């Protein structure tokens, strides 16, 4: 298996500013629910399936890795994912399958694993390990599989012993697309017919994709409910384009509705009826939102022979033709073919695809029933809309929020209160008293007073806050939307790294549409051998931040001077080199004018030359400008050097000055004699340009006889 991608990482703490309108358009990641199911159905298909537009979040990466562990051959080139599988490929894994934070992965994989012999152990992180799996275990046990977990609620790790399965008729007590999907996947291996009877229709993506794979499946809508029947049958490969995720689009749509003077378009969003209930809620609140159906899918600009994605109910086959043999399933799979995945192969779009536009305007309270948004994924975003509305909005029947990635019911209430509105929980209901209020006698407030300048005529909205999402991705993104709506100022959101599970590009998209967000800027100074590089690297990794080694920049200039025969003491020539050179400080490699010098800048010759180069005022001026540009481009980060807290970033969020005993520093720098370290200390601390000194407000740490972990823990404690 080859993925070609590392796990996405986002900073743990983000500071989001309000005070600016949002505008433009964007595409959200591929639908997470469809992405999981496309990989699993692809693994069951007898041959090679192609999936384009796959969600790039960590949750879906867990499913991708899992189907590979179960025997499918998976390749991801960054644009198209190929899955080669079939029943003969699949088997129990050699070791535990890590689902990370993804409950969808665990529940769907449990249904798949129930169908083949052997033992599959599904594990997850601390959050997932606290989420009950009894609702999926019960039907799989009824079919003949042995499923065990911890306690009565069957908490993970989840162990599935595959067996010869018998079809069942299952009527879930609580609407759950994940439970339905697990039962249907197990039903593909079962003798006889397996039926799932839903009292309330949930996301139909498993039905859509199984129909696309030519499964023996039937779907019948019955009032507000639906019955899905499946029988054991071989599946053919699927070629599919994953449309944009409406649950992710909801954050931007709500943002456009609550941030003054904003207007946004979100392109290529899945628009099936079970996923767009939040739009009906917003319209009822008075929001100006519009759904333009029949829009091109997320791969509409790619190569291939097929026509644009359609919104019909047939099942497009592999070459872009019309309805497939089992179109009677009525599962809502797209009729037209999307853009070709590659090599001229057309891909079918799953379900209706649309563009959604939203515009700022006054909102009024309403009553929102859980049946309108069965997954409840959009509740955090809608709660922000309710917090900005006039009146009290009641969210009815929201008990399932308690068993999401966090106790999301209480988390939503915490966020609303932190942002200056009021929330209270009554049983399974959530009440949000909004701060909407005065819009001015002329209707919508003008651009100058939209944030309430204190004259009584503008809108008095949310306030800035500090909020810990506790790693819940949807709570972190909802908090960012609330911060954007809170006017001038800045909100701090902790636990933001969880957003990488579903939407790694969220911060980039926030900036793309005109929002402002930054991460903490941490300046780490100290003399040679004090541990700056090791500690800064560890701090950056723990916080999910980018790191800049400014010393590597000076070393690169010193190396280039030596390489070109320039005397390091020739100040004008070295300064000219520093101003003109193209320097990439990495990671992973340090590059100057196209030459990779990562190892070359650590030689004894460069050690002897770098102090003279670093003492050159013109060199420092050139490189300080680049260092500040780096921080601006990254929105912050961890920067280490010898004048970071005093000269380069005097306003850093945290300044740290590391030191250590002279003999200890010499021992650490085995490539440099102790007298060389002492000489560099003297040169660095006595130079006229930006000498090495501790900033007045820097925290001092003596790293002598202390572990890296101890030092890093102390630094992180100062950020809390």
Structure commentary:
By secondary structure, the protein is α/β, with parallel strands linked by helices. 32% of the residues lie in helices and 22% in strands. The chain has 21 helices and 34 strands. The strands form 8 sheets. The protein has a 6-stranded mixed sheet with strand order 4-5-3-14-18-17, with helices on one face. A 5-stranded parallel sheet has the order 28-32-27-33-34, sandwiched between helices. The longest helix has 18 residues, at 617-634. The protein is globular and about 85 Å long. The model is unreliable at 1-5, 299-345, 437-449 and 453-457 (pLDDT under 50).
Summarize the structure.
With 720 residues, the protein is of the alpha/beta class. 32% of the residues lie in helices and 22% in strands.
List the helices and strands and how they pair.
Layout lengths: L12 E6 L4 E4 L5 H13 L2 E6 L5 H12 L3 E4 L3 E6 L11 E2 L4 H11 L5 E5 L10 H10 L2 E5 L4 E7 L7 E2 L6 H11 L5 E6 L6 H8 L3 E7 L2 E7 L7 E3 L4 H13 L4 E8 L6 H8 L3 E6 L43 E6 L2 E5 L3 E7 L7 E3 L9 H9 L4 E5 L11 H11 L3 E5 L2 E5 L32 E3 L4 H12 L4 E6 L11 H7 L3 E4 L1 E5 L6 H12 L3 E3 H14 L7 H10 L2 E2 L6 E2 L2 E2 L7 H11 L2 H18 L2 E5 L2 H5 L5 E6 L2 H7 L5 H13 L12 E4 L5 H12 L1
Parallel strand pairs: 2-15, 3-14, 6-7, 10-11, 14-18, 20-21, 24-25, 27-32, 27-33, 28-32, 33-34
Antiparallel strand pairs: 1-25, 1-26, 3-5, 4-5, 7-9, 8-9, 11-13, 12-13, 15-19, 16-19, 17-18, 21-23, 22-23, 29-30, 30-31
Helix pairs in contact: 1-2, 1-3, 1-6, 3-5, 4-5, 7-9, 7-11, 9-11, 13-21, 14-16, 15-17, 16-20, 19-20
């Amino acid at each position: 298996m080859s993925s070609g991608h590392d796990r996405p990482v986002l900073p743990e703490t983000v500071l989001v500013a309000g005070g600016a309108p949002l505008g433009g358009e964007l595409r959200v990641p591929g639908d997470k629910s469809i992405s999981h199911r496309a990989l699993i159905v692809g693994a069951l298909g007898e041959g090679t399936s192609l999936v384009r537009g796959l969600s790039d979040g960590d949750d879906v990466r867990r499913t991708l890795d899992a189907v590979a562990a179960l025997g499918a051959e998976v390749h991801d080139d960054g644009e198209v994912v190929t899955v080669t599988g079939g029943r003969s490929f699949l088997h129990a894994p050699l070791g535990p399958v890590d689902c990370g934070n993804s409950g969808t992965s665990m529940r769907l994989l449990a249904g798949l694993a129930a169908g083949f012999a052997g033992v599959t152990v599904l594990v997850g992180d601390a959050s997932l390990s606290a989420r009950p799996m009894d609702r999926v275990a019960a039907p799989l046990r009824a079919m003949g599989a042995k499923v065990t977990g911890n306690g009565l609620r069957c908490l993970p790790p989840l162990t599935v012993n595959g067996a010869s399965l018998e079809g069942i008729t299952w009527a879930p007590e609580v609407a759950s697309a994940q439970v339905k999907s697990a039962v249907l996947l197990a039903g593909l291996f079962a003798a006889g017919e397996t039926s799932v009877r839903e009292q309330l229709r949930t996301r139909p993506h498993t039905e859509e994709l199984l129909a696309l794979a030519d499964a023996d499946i039937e779907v019948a809508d019955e009032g507000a409910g639906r019955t899905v029947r499946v029988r054991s049958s071989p599946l053919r490969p699927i070629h599919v384009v994953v449309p944009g995720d409406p649950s992710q689009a909801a954050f931007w749509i709500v943002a456009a509705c609550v941030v003054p003077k904003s207007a946004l378009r979100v392109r290529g969003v899945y628009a099936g009826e079970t996923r767009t209930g939040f739009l009906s809620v917003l319209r009822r609140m008075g929001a100006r939102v519009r759904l333009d159906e029949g829009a091109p899918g997320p791969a509409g600009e790619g190569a291939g022979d097929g026509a644009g994605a359609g919104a019909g109910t047939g099942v497009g086959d592999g070459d872009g033709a019309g309805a497939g043999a089992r179109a009677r399933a009525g599962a809502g799979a797209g009729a037209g073919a999307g853009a070709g995945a590659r090599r001229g192969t057309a891909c079918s779009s799953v379900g209706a695809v649309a563009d959604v536009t939203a515009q700022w305007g006054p909102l009024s309270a309403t009553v929102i029933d859980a049946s309108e948004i069965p997954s409840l994924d959009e509740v955090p975003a809608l709660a922000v809309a309710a917090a900005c509305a006039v009146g009290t909005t009641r969210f009815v029947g929201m008990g399932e929020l308690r068993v999401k990635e966090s106790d999301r019911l209480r988390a939503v209430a915490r966020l609303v209160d932190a942002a200056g509105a009021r929330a209270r929980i009554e049983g399974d209901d959530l009440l949000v008293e909004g701060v909407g209020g005065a819009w001015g006698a002329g209707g919508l407030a003008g651009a100058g007073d939209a944030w309430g300048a204190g004259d009584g005529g503008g809108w008095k909205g949310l306030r800035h806050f500090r909020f810990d999402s506790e790693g819940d991705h949807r709570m972190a993104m909802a908090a960012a939307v609330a911060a954007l709506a809170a006017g001038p100022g800045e909100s701090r959101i902790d636990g933001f790294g969880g957003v990488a599970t579903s939407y790694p590009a969220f911060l980039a998209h926030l900036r793309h549409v005109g929002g402002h967000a930054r991460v903490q800027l941490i300046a780490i100074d100290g003399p040679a051998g004090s541990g700056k590089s090791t500690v800064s690297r560890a701090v950056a990794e723990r916080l999910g931040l980018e790191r800049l080694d400014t010393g590597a920049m000076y070393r690169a200039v010193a190396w280039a001077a030596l390489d070109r025969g320039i005397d390091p003491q020739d100040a004008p020539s070295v300064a000219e080199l520093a101003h003109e050179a193209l320097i990439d400080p990495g990671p992973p490699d340090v590059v100057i004018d196209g030459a990779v010098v990562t190892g070359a800048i650590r030689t004894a010759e460069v050690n002897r030359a770098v102090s003279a180069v670093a003492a050159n005022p013109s060199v420092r001026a050139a490189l300080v400008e680049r260092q500040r540009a780096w921080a601006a481009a990254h929105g912050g980060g961890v920067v280490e050097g010898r004048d970071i807290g005093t000269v380069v970033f005097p306003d850093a969020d945290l300044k740290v000055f590391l030191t250590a005993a002279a003999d200890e520093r010499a021992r650490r720098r085995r490539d440099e004699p102790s007298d060389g370290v002492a000489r560099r200390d003297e040169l660095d601390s006595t130079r006229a340009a930006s000498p090495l000194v501790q900033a007045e407000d820097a925290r001092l740490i003596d790293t002598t006889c202390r572990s890296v972990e101890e030092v890093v823990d102390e630094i992180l404690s100062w950020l809390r």
